[in-house]
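INTERNAL AUDIT FORM
Audit reference: QA-55
Scope: verify that the stored structure record matches its stored sequence.
Auditor: D.O.
Record contents follow.
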Amino acid sequence: MKKVLGLILELNPFHNGHKYFIEQAKKEANPDVTIAIITSSFSMRGEVSLIDKFTKADLCIQEGIDLVLELPFLYANNSADYFAYSAISILNEAGITDLAFGTCIDSIDKLQRIYQYTLSDSYNCLLKSFLDKGNSYPNSALKAFMEVCDDKELINNFTLPNNTLAISYLKAIDSVNKSIIPHSIKRIDNMYYDKSLSNTSYTSATSLREALKKKEDISKYIFYSYDFVDEKEANNNLYQLLKFNLITKDVKAYENIASVNEGIENRLININDCESYDSFLENAATKRYPLNRLKRLVLNILLDTNKKYENMNSYLPYLRILRTNDLGLKQIKNKKCITNLSKAFKEIDDDLKEILDFELKVTKLYDLITNKNIYKEEFIFGVRK
């Protein structure tokens, strides 16, 4: 039986650690074909991508991936469970047999044990109780987990970002296709949230973003040259658009926008002018709206994302090829894939057309705040060998 490995990547930015992950994942699964699905212009946490999606896809092909698919914004700009469900649904449609993901724990069995605890009735009752008391989802989940599990190692690993997402992947596999074989690849050197560059050639994407803000040299940690997006400038541009939106719209205009709940729109409108986007977010944050949720919310406001896409758990077969080689082409030769956009808009159904059209709007916003001017590439590039 042919083995097809799936990878879910954000690459913000692509660095040596990602290169290591891809190499180790292929070594672990020994696939005949490797497929990656990547987020496009913004990350799951609502942050602007420091590398445009076409360059990310090119680098993936360069590093031994055979087919690169797009995870559209409407699927990606969500919490971990919905992000994972959408990504794995698309990879499953493309025919993966295995899925590899990064973790902070040294065993897939330990990760499976954590996941099994989250399926228990006692855990879910406690989770609901803590949420009802006004706690954020991450804090509620940890409190509930500590009540049902007495293993200190598992508790210490429960809230680590890579592990949290990995648990969502296991949950999605159970929902989408139980036959998909999961593989965990333990991350090396510093952790996801580490802001300081490591002493080795492997460091976190967070530390690289911090270094780029300070105009520091990061050549030790990457294997390519690229004119990275100036994140501070992009965020400031984003903030200017947001301020204009908040002062020109009536509060009722936000009622049907995804992620706008619990009166958060009133809080945003009433916050006095802040010096920066980061300062605005810090002032707006609450227990129920931590920073990552707020960042996703801001993007939904600026893009006027309809509430029907909030916490989206239904799947439409969006197979858009960003880059591929011959092996990738053979893998999806019998699938309905989106390559030529002008042709796609004439052939796909209205629901898929809406998602694709929205993705183009996302690219326009990305161009506006980064000055990258990649919108034209949406129509120039399709399948490339």
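Auditor finding: record pair retrieved intact. The chain has three domains: 4-104+162-228+312-380, 109-159, 231-309.
Action required: none
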